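Illustration: EXPERA domain-containing protein.
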Amino acid sequence: METLKNATKMAADPLHPYYPLGVEVVGYLANDWNVPQMLAIFFGGCAVIFYTTYLVVKRVHPHLPRGELYAVMWFVLRYFALNYKHMAGYQDLFGQLWKEYAMSDSRYLTQNAFVLCMETVTAALWGPLSFVVAAMITVQHPLRHPLQALVSIGQIYGDILYYATSMFDHYILDVTYSRPEAYYFWGYYFFMNFIWIVIPGWLLYNSITETAKAFEIAGKVNKSKKSI
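Result:
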């Protein structure tokens, strides 16, 4: 009877706001800042990053096309995922943003195996390579498009698996990681992650078309040499 009372009390007054109810979130501390405050600081930081990137790129390559400049900024903004075990207790900007996003997917705070592996690959591979690609775009390095295609495929593949594993658990195992409010699912979970398919998809298409053009030109050069 006492166990039942405790379980009922926990359901009525949960230790944290994440779903599924009762999931363990180690060291959870509630955020100190509200969402508008966090977004204002975050976008302010992004503006500084973009402006600094713009100044560096224009100094190195003053006539870089606008589309290329946007691609550089995208790759510079790639993120690193570190210290996943302790994010629930972090009260700095990124810790609180992480906890806010986890309202749409609590796997980011529960040491979920898939999310851990995915973010480890991001931190160790896609993150650093993104900065390499950004530098290669700036200096017009010939390896730019092969690496851009590689990173973009990695981002798209990871995002598809991210959606698929969550939907499998939801529809097959009846486990929901998002809070019931619609804006958490459609705004945070769906829209914010869909960006990581759309932009890498455009960059992948760009690399494929540029690579095809390069092979076409090389083929014409080889034919002209043979005809001489």
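Reading the tokens back as a structure: The chain has a mean pLDDT of 83.
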